[in-house]
Amino acid sequence: MSVAVIIPIYKQELSELERHSLARCVAVLGRHPLVFFGPRSLTPTHHFRVAPTAIQEGFDDTYFSSPETYSKLLLTTSFYERFSAFDYVLVYQLDAFVFHDALTEWCLRSYDYLGAPFRNASDSSWLGVGNGGFSLRNVRSFLAVLTSLSKEDPEAYWNIERLLTTSRTKLLLKSYRKWKKRLGRREDVREFLSRFIAEGRPEDLFWGLHAVRFHPPFRVAPVDVALDFAIEGGLLDVGTRYASRPPFGCHQNRFLEMISRFRAGIERPEGEYEAAVWSLAGRAGLSPEQTRPQDSETRLMSDPRP
């Protein structure tokens, strides 16, 4: 089972929080291959100072001009073909933080896609899995989706509509679409992605919800499993599940900010949410240490505790 940690980069400099994120990645996941991917024109000198064993893969600069163009890249066969030497890749954006090395353990679970669950903005229910900023991807399965010749599966389509439509009345009004898909013309993955990309929609939404429409064997982890993989939102609702062990990782700048405050030895958390994040950090073996800001990168890199 081979796996690489692939880290998107798009600028020359690293912010302080990005240094923290990358240094933690090196400290915890550095025994795995680390790969920076970004614009061909970029020479990430500062990144290599933090992760000297990493290698670099360059793609056309235009893919890194906006979140929409980045999403487009991660919906191309050429992207995953670049990593076809590996069974899995862990996408680790520099607003992520890894608590312990469970990478091989998660690869052995044999899911095709894993990421932090995301929530429905209207009622905060769990919408699906999962956020792409800290996500595990089966390279062969991703290529199977993107090269599929099958038309979309009507039942998979309708399952997604039921998930996304919270109003029973609206769902009833949409029901004719299910029969239209069964009896009429159905899209293939290329037609769907052409429209999906043109609408500027995020790539992780495709992998978490829609990929199964075109390749039914594609396995996305259920929310209950994905919560042990990573957390992005809803920590206060599920915090008790981490009483003995934190998730593998988390994704969002506010997590990085709160963990940095914890490591800096701030006396008290600012509110209930930060207290919950500090609790995760403590269970991961991190400890409050009063150190100068310029020492933070060295401290995180040299901390051997997972």
Structure description:
The chain has 306 residues and is of the alpha/beta class. It has 2 domains: 3-150 and 197-302, Alpha-Beta Complex (Spore Coat Polysaccharide Biosynthesis Protein SpsA, Chain A), CATH 3.90.550; 154-186, no CATH class. Helices cover 43% and strands 16% of the residues. It contains 15 helices and 9 strands. It has helices spanning 16-29, 45-50, 67-73, 77-81, 103-107, 139-146, 154-164, 168-183, 189-198, 203-210, 223-229, 235-238, 253-263, 272-283, 296-302; strands at residues 3-8, 34-39, 55-59, 88-92, 96-98, 113-119, 126-138, 230-231, 249-251. It has a 6-stranded mixed beta sheet with strand order 3-2-1-4-7-6, with helices on both faces. A 3-stranded mixed beta sheet has the order 5-9-8. The longest helix is centred in the middle third of the chain and has 16 residues, at 168-183. It is globular and about 65 Å long. 38% of the residues are buried. Mean pLDDT is 87; it is low at 290-306.
CATH class division of the largest domain = Alpha Beta
**What would CATH call the architecture of the largest domain?**
Alpha-Beta Complex
Query: Considering DSSP H and I runs of 4 or more, what fraction of the residues is helical?
Result: 40-55%
Distance between the termini: 21 Å
Q: Helix/strand/pairing class, anyone?
A: alpha/beta
Strand tally, please? Answer: 9
Question: Could you tell me the mean pLDDT?
Answer: 87
Strand order of the largest sheet: 3-2-1-4-7-6
> What shape does the CA trace take?
globular
- State which percent range the strand residues make up: 15-25%
DSSP helical segment count: 15
Model regions low in confidence, pLDDT < 50 over at least 5 residues: 290-306
Number of domains: 2
Order of SSEs: EHEHEHHEEHEEHHHHHHEHEHHH
- CATH domain topology of the largest domain: Spore Coat Polysaccharide Biosynthesis Protein SpsA, Chain A
Radius of gyration (CA) equals 20 Å
> Biggest β-sheet: count, sense, barrel?
6 strands, mixed
